[in-house]
Amino acid sequence: MQINKKIYSTLIISLLALSMIAVAIPMVSAIAGPPALFATPAFGTPVTEVTGGPVGSRVSIIANSTHGTPAAPFTLVTAYWDSLTGKVLGTVSADVNGYFRIDAVIPSAITGDHYVIVKDSGDAAYAVYTVVPIVTAASVPPVPGPVRVLPGDSLTVTGHGYAPGDEMTITLVATGSVTNTVTITTPVVETNSTGSFTATIVIPAIAAANYSTYDVTAEDEAAGSDTFEINIDYYIILTPNGGPTGITTVIAGRIPASKAYEVRFNAAPIATGTSSATGTYSESYAIPSVLSTGTYEVMIVWDTSINRTADFEVTAPPTITLGATTGVAGTVVTINGFTFSRYATITLYFGTTVVNSTAMDSRFGPTSAATGNFAEEFVVPALTPGVYAVKVVDQYGATTQPIYTFVITPTPVTTVALNGAAYMQGDALSFTFRTTETSITAGPVCVIRSPAGVVYWSGAAWTLTTSGVTMSVLYQDQLFNGNPAVLPADAPLGAWNWTITYTPISTGVSTKATGVFSVSAPATLDAIMTKLDDVQGNITEAITTSEGVIINNLNGLDAKLTSITNSIASISTTVGTINTAVSNLNIGTLGSDVMEIAGDVATIQTSLGALTADLDAIGLEVTDISGTVATIETDLGTLSGTVTSIDDGVATIETEVGTVKADVQGLSEVDMTPVWIAVVLSLVA
To answer: Looking at residues 481-485, what average pLDDT do you find?
Structure first.
């Protein structure tokens, strides 16, 4: 059985193509080695390569040119925890080099070594990640900042990464100048199968002298442990603890229950009160405008001399800087703020319009807890073009001065087009490129391709000419290597394509405008004559042709009957002169009337105008003479007149429009007697 030669050839070509692809892109069949693991806080830029850490850590699983082992190019790479049937940590497609990055969170697991497995279309590879214990604590209810509690308060302690099924021991160990260790007595707390636990403990009675910072330590039976720091003490918290004058700070905290207190700002009393049954208190204070920048002590005092203090830093009035002060709607602009209230939400205004805020977008703010500064971006809103006052206000009342403005400019309009849709071989192409952009940072560059996709023209960026607020490319500057685009005489016929690429300054994004146009062969004389032969015209009330009715009222053509020569009528119209036989004219519809005959010339009035014509041209013929009355037929109608003489067979006939001399020799059985009598009588008279 023979193989079809066409099929055989196709197989050979396919194999050759595949071999070329294999050379162009190395086909790695599978991941040949382990990936790299990097610590990646908030899934930003990976910082350090790691081999282990606690549960909940954010890591990036990486393979690139310097770390890890690439996968097969363009394949799907999946990361698993401990086994190919375990938890999926993430999936991503490798690039052309087989490089990939998968961001993952270390799941709940027992202490010790675990496997981070990556697999593409082939085999799998792994890296070892060692889980270590971690413990955290939170007061009930939670308070801002460090964990703060007093004896009798509840504390929730959570741990991960311990040995499974172990009984936990929780202790409090004082740090700093106080030496004190407290063992927490709680019901038995055991870790689960993944080494995690949660326990709620009550802070035991501790003498006020031992109030201090304590480490909460959780240890399993295998001596795996971790610590977390809490504060067991009376306290004062300022919210915010820094900012410009004019803002209001809240002074709150805990002291002994039901105690009379006095709050002092820079040693001056500003408020008094009595703590609640749980020892809480809260006062508000507006920072006076008379204060200069600097650090001021805020103190709560009870029992005459017992106190706790915190510092408030008065900063300079808030300011902002804008990355741009003009732009169209939709423009992204950077904004930096300085010395606002610390850790405060912010709101940006254009006039009275809210542009953005922390409430609208959690990524917009808050300010830094240490400095009150911020660095953000915003999008210019779609407002009426004009000048707008820019203001930033934070949640505690800090606001910028009315010295910042932003000008929203009209959205630029760019028109790009080829000026025609259909061309012939030999025609020149011209484009329209007009824009109200203030600048075109790249281009415009034009590329023109034939129906087969072959580039016929391309070149350097065209020159832009500015006129008022508009820039355009003049025709004289639409050049390709110094020459305009003129279609060759042998240009391929069919649909061509053009593309103009440019980058407007308003967006900074490369933009393409494209379109198509047709190219056809120019018409030849033979083709025109053939077409004219195909149009068989007959003039009646309309011009009816083989292509259909062209017009159904000659008035629409401003038609005028200009002459009749050799029985051919010439009609002048707005589209040219029409010649046709008089016999083709519907005389009745033209309203023709012979107005005057002088010699051999007749003056004729028609609905298409007045004209003169030779008598022979209108087919004048005497058809009957009865007595002295002659009947004259013409192409335009019938005349009658009186015969005044006959000389050698030529009769002179007087009509209402003039004298006609006509040959009557062809008439038979004409009684000439009345004519002679009339002549004689006229002579006698």
So the answer is: 90
